[in-house]
Amino acid sequence: MPLHIIVLAAGQGTRMRSALPKVLQPLGDRPLLTHVVETAQRLDPERIHVVYGHGAEQVQSALGYLDVNWVHQAEQLGTGHAVAQAIHDVPDGARVLVLYGDVPLIRAETLENLVEAAGGDSLALLTVVLDDPTGYGRIVRDDSNRVIGIVEHKDADGDQRHIREVNTGLLCGPAGRLRDWLVRLDNDNAQGEYYLTDIVALAAEDGVRVVAGQAGSAAEVQGINDKRELAAAERVLQRRQADELMAAGLTLRDPARFDLRGTLTAGPDCVIDVNAVIEGEVALGAGVHVGPNCVLRQCRIGDGTQIHAHTVIEHARVGDRCQIGPFARLRPDTELGERAKVGNFVETKNIKVGAGSKMPHLSYVGDAELGADVNVGAGVITCNYDGAAKHKTVIGDGAFIGSDCQLVAPVEVAAGATIGAGSTITKDAPAGKLTVSRARQVTVEGWQRPRKDRKT
Ligand code: UD1
Ligand code: CA
């Protein structure tokens, strides 16, 4: 039986108090709706239909690329009305699974169980028992414990409000039946809306079996309505990701202080200390150590490399057995060969560095190519920008740049050259020789330091 999934995502989300539509609010740096659509895809459905409405243009421009059938709901007249918009595109013989765009943590396994519970002809509801059911639709059962309806909080009487089993909103049923029930809905209720939940009573009336499957945890079915719930969901997502990575062998010094906002792959025996923020696609080789408070964005780190505390790396490739930081900043297009060292307060950008080269302290090296075994002394700066254009610095194998030099690009320091400390290098320096540009040191004989007059 083909499966069609309808995702309801047209609501406004006023409580977010944001110019960004609710379903575009980020969870793990990806829009809420993206999480739902990705989970839906894991069920391998015939088609995914997304009912959108509020913030339509923003939603389309951010997520228009998704392989789904976009169904526009111009006016949000209720969840039943929303499903009715999409049901036109679903054939009678199919099964329909309804998801919410703002319930992003739902697991594919839970949905698979729900679809299975629905079978070919039953209506399956996903429910959860809450200590505080305020605001939710309550599951109403008859004397023999059969589900006979859902009553919304605002329509519930005092007794019904004591029911703690609530509707998560997620359900699965046969398309043909659903189509029929949807046209029978009315909006004669406290909110003047077409409630999807009213189909449950219609199903019971029609003698269709209604089954309630319970969700694995309340967190999984939590709807996100405000920034507090968004933050709570973020922690749940982070813990899930951390658990998966640890199951695959990654050592996290504290999974509660780890944030992955993208994808991380790690070879065996990697260790990540506290407060790491990992963004985009990050790949760690084998035995990589990441110190506390590091940010890694879109980068590849080679085997055995150590990244010390407070390092920021973005759009870079780091070779095997390198030493980076503490307090290093590798900016985009930094490529380090094996055993390279980038030490504290060093900033790099658009550079290629050969094996074994070192820049241990206080440097800016940008738009440069360094050979192997180059030594860059403390305080060296490549002056790559003349106010209009960027220029390149080339440093050959085994060159030694003394401390506090400025290399004014375009300039080349040939292999094996030594640049004396404190030099400003504006012309190419030849191979194997010492080049210095600083003024000679003099000592002035008989010079006296000025003195203040002493009052007596
Ligand atoms: C709904 C359920 C309630 C359940 C609760 C769980 C109904 C009538 N009530 O209530 O039983 O306990 O969810 O969170 O279904 N949407 C549209 N178009 C609309 C209206 C809503 O796309 O016209 C979307 C919203 O964007 C949201 C979802 O449907 O993703 C649920 O809508 P919401 O208004 O939050 O429903 P609740 O009143 O919370
Ligand atoms: Ca809601």
Structural notes for this entry:
This protein is α/β, with parallel strands linked by helices and 456 residues long. It folds into three domains: 3-221, Alpha-Beta Complex (Spore Coat Polysaccharide Biosynthesis Protein SpsA, Chain A), CATH 3.90.550.10; 248-344, Hexapeptide repeat proteins (UDP N-Acetylglucosamine Acyltransferase, domain 1); 367-456, UDP N-Acetylglucosamine Acyltransferase, domain 1 (3 Solenoid). The strands form seven sheets. Strands 13, 15, 17, 19, 21, 22, 24, 26, 29 and 32 form a ten-stranded parallel beta sheet that branches. Helix 3 (79-87) crosses helix 5 (175-183). The longest helix is centred in the middle third of the chain and has 21 residues, at 227-247. It is elongated, with a radius of gyration of 32 Å. The termini are far apart. The mean pLDDT is 97. Calcium ion binds next to loops. Residues 223, 225 line the site of calcium ion (CA).
Architecture per CATH nomenclature, i.e. the level-2 architecture of the largest domain = Alpha-Beta Complex
How many domains? 3
Could you tell me the radius of gyration in angstroms?
32 Å
Given helix and strand content, the structural type is: alpha/beta
Q: How much is the average pLDDT?
A: 97
Low-confidence stretches: none
CATH structural fold name of the largest domain: Spore Coat Polysaccharide Biosynthesis Protein SpsA, Chain A
Termini, distance in Å?
A: 108 Å
Largest sheet: 10 strands, parallel
| CATH fourth-tier homologous superfamily of the largest domain | Spore Coat Polysaccharide Biosynthesis Protein SpsA, Chain A
Q: What fraction of residues sit in β-strands?
A: 25-35%
Question: How much helicity do the residues have?
Answer: 10-25%
Instruction: Specify the overall morphology.
Output: elongated
